[in-house]
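Example 3.2
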Amino acid sequence: MWSRCSPALRVHRHRYLTPAFAQTIRFSSGSTTIMGGIGTRTVDTTERLAKLRDLLKKPENNVKAFVVPSEDQHFSEYPAHSDERRAFISGFNGSAGCAIITLRDAFLFTDGRYFLQASQQLDSNWKLMKQGLPDVPTWQEFLSKHLKQGTRIGIDPTLISAVDAQNLKKSLEPRGSELVSLQQNPVDIVWGKDRPPCPHNRVFPLDVKYAGESFQDKLQRLREEIANKDAVASVVTLLDEVAWLFNLRGTDIDFNPVFFAYAIVTPTKAILFMDDAQAQPSIKTFLSSHVEIRPYEFFIPSLKELTATLGANKEKPILLGDKTSLAVVEAIGEENAVLIPSPVAAMKAIKNETEIEGFRKCHIRDGAALIRYFAWLEEQLDEGVELNESQGADKLEEFRSELDLFRGLSFPTISSTGPNAAVIHYSPDPHDCAIIKKDQIYLCDSGGQYLDGTTDVTRTLHFGTPTDEEKRAFTRVLQGHISIDTAVFPIGTSGFIIDSFARRALWQEGWDYRHGTGHGVGHFLNVHEGPHGIGTRIAYNSTSLKAGMTVSNEPGYYADGRYGIRVENVVIVREAKTPNNFGNGYLCFEHVTMCPIQTKLIDFSVLTAQEKEWLNLYHAETLEKVGPLLRNDLRALQWLERECSPV
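Structure, written as tokens:
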């Protein structure tokens, strides 16, 4: 259960771009569905489900339902291909969702970002459960309220958080139902030899000139948190937290510069559990005597040893992040651990000044690639060249690959035209995707990984003549974007509180969007980072926005079957200088994304004078900062100057 894959499957994967970080597969092949890849292909799951149900009935399992979440054992939002169990069993490859398979039925739960994509990908064996809509339960509520009483529900304890497991057990008790930890995940058995190989790719140090803080200092800060909590140790299970804590990066998961590892930190020792093949001499030299390296598979036995050695108990517990798996808690003993919001996540979320400066610089370079791409695309369309969405995405990646410190994309490029732009997390299939048309909205959501930062930017353009409705919708989205960008709010305010700023203009039209307004962004790490964000999820109210946090600003509007609109910049939370200081102080945002916002799509009859001023100032700043990087590309420079003309 604890081996990620059998030794026979442990092979290096060939990638391209730079050795340090790499581009990855953007589509699926054979019977494997790649998470975050193709957005519209339907997979026949009849045989897979039949085999799975046969396994559920076996005496060693004897369960009436089985839960298949999206995450891996580290609760990665985007898992390695070998861990994409939910995508394999359901055919739906969006990044968020949970499958529940009973002996008769199959249910896929997902949020509003993926309603359209899931409806296109799921075959007739599945019922789509649109979470967030009235009378639609969460997958947890479904288990406790909609299955028959006395149901044995199978889970893989490495893939469900201890918090979810505890809450589910309590809710199932009144119905006489129970969670049953299976010794082997039946989806893996069904997948069999078709399951992709498990990666163990190169790991490399991130120079402190980019990280801004040594791993020794980070460990010391974590040890201070252990002492403050009167604990004996902290266990780190999330991959981006391990990578950040030790100033290491890897290439085990597409688009995310992380590697498979766990860590245990005590007041006197730091232990890193990683694959033997990845613990190269350069890594051992970098970590030196400060960190002990043990094989990845020794993690669980070491937890049991640690509990006994340190004398962990209720009064002197081991700190576990609230996304830690049930299997880890069971290994330590529930009475010896405390589940709290991860202290490493909280430290990582607040960027130091070196990281912040890196965000500024990489976004300026990234903006140059975007501008070169949009100028090129417009010229191609004007000349009647036929280009599909995938070809557009490839060209943008080519421009990015020429930039300093580039190490790959931060997620699959969403290059979408017309109706496809309404699929919020669409990704084009290079073998079967739409032609980019001048008379349709074109939405491009993309990003890059650089040694000095991570980018995520969306621009919506029209290369012909937009309709009045399209202009009205774009303008309302832009007004929401400006409202967030210019917000000033008291220290202690959460993203849950200010989310309505982004929606107010859309609400005036009776419009809205089914996704969050903003997510945290890692520093040369995962493009989606917590614990903070801007959105309607009540969880965002648990973490206030703090100076140094990075977050996206991306309101949108989507007319299913016709077009989609989104405007996205990355912003940094900064201290605001206000004329007065009632209370404890105020915060504001600094935008770092530098790419023009198309004025052709604006309905100026609803834009205020202040909003026009913001737009002109933003374009002047973009021209000043990015223009010098385009001296060798006259086409791009002229396009930038035109798009940044004052309105």
